[in-house]
Amino acid sequence: MRSSGRNSRGSGSGGKNYRGAGNRRDEQQQRAGRPRPEERRYDVGGGPKAGPKAGPKGSQGGPKGSQGSQGGPRTGGSQGGPRTGGSQGGPRTGGSQGGGPKGGGRGRKPGPARPREYEAQIEERNRARHDKPRVKMPKTFGEPEGERLQKVLARAGMGSRRACEDLIDQARVEVNGKIVTEQGLRVDPEKDEIKVDGLTVATQSYLFFALNKPAGVVSTMEDPDGRQCLGDYVTNRETRLFHVGRLDTETEGIILLTNHGELAHRLTHPRYGVRKTYLAAIQGPLPRDLGKRLKSGIQLEDGYARADHFRVVQNTGKNYLVEVSLHEGRKHIVRRMLAEAGFPVDKLVRTAFGPIALGDQKSGWLRRLTNTEVGMLMREVEL
């Protein structure tokens, strides 16, 4: 019983001795000039992360140490091991005496900042490396001249590039008289003759329009007397257009406008004989041989005039609507022929110029010709 009492008192005194030993150690550290654990600064030799971690874990034993003597804080100590700088099993960052190879803080000290002049030189070198002028390669090594055929066709309105490639695959495209079957052929739109299904494609910057001229409009682009003329319908066009042939003031119907001089010249030249079709309103009754007389030729003051085709379209009592086709383009030719045959014209409308028909186009409306229509016109005059 006594021995157990001594043991209990010994254990109690041992606890006091533990605290007393700690106090004596603190007194010895004070005499040696060392600060007490709660007075130490733990940012000595530590990196940028050592300061914030040192405060809460350093004084009087943090969560992983007891009162700084055994297993003290994780920063700063007196006798550090190879990786620690604390007293016994201390921190992993630098302490007062010794530190391991990894002591002295986890974060390295940043190196000296580079001067601004050096940074500017680096930036200039980078820019110079990327801003070098392109080297002009010889033609044998550079891009071949011309444009891809499918691109030219697409720009001319023949469809999308994929659709134009299909036209080439189907052997429907000709360049300078030769059928093209390979993709990627390069052409010069200004010089090469391109055809699709035998029709020339207008790849140049030409414009082609069809106007349904109303009655009372003068067939000229400018009228000095201030009358309504063809130029009033194309005033907003940047390119100068001119009319193909003429219609007298009282005649209605289709008239072509373009800036293609050669095409306009050939369409009106007697050599190519482009047919024009008219509807004329006359009074009857008509003899059966009227068409035969017109086809055989009517004598006029400036020579014979012959019709290529004649037919009666409509008959209501004495009112007749007849269709006359001819390839001549003399002034008032249809009116003079019918008047010479004994049937003056009450109203005259031109319904077709070559392969271009008026259709249901309203009076005074201007429309752009399609590429197919332009191709048919060019084929008509061997362009």
What would your notes on this structure say?
With 383 residues, this protein is of the alpha+beta class. Helix content is 27%, strand content 19%. It contains nine helices and 17 strands. It has helices at residues 2-31, 50-58, 116-130, 149-155, 161-169, 261-268, 290-296, 333-340, 371-380, and strands at residues 147-148, 173-175, 178-179, 186-187, 194-196, 199-200, 208-213, 242-244, 252-258, 276-283, 298-300, 303-305, 309-316, 319-326, 347-353, 356-357, 366-368. Strands 7, 8, 9, 10, 13, 14, 15, 16 and 17 form a nine-stranded mixed beta sheet that branches. Strands 3-2-5-6 form a four-stranded antiparallel beta sheet. Helix 4 packs across helix 5 (161-169). The longest helix is centred in the first third of the chain and has 30 residues, at 2-31. The chain is elongated, with a radius of gyration of 52 Å.
Short description:
The protein has 383 residues and is α+β, with helices and mostly antiparallel strands.
Name the structural class: alpha+beta
Order of helices and strands: HHHEHHEEEEEEEEHEHEEEEHEEEH
Helix content: 25-40%
Distance between the termini: 136 Å
Radius of gyration: 52 Å
Mean pLDDT: 74
Q: Using DSSP, what is the number of strands?
A: 17
Strand portion, in percent?
A: 15-25%
Main sheet: strands, sense, barrel:
9 strands, mixed
Number of helices: 9
Global geometry: elongated
* Poorly predicted segments: 1-18, 45-105
State the main characteristics:
single chain; 383 residues; alpha+beta; 9-stranded mixed beta sheet; 4-stranded antiparallel beta sheet; 9 helices; 17 strands; 27% helix; 19% strand; elongated; disordered N terminus
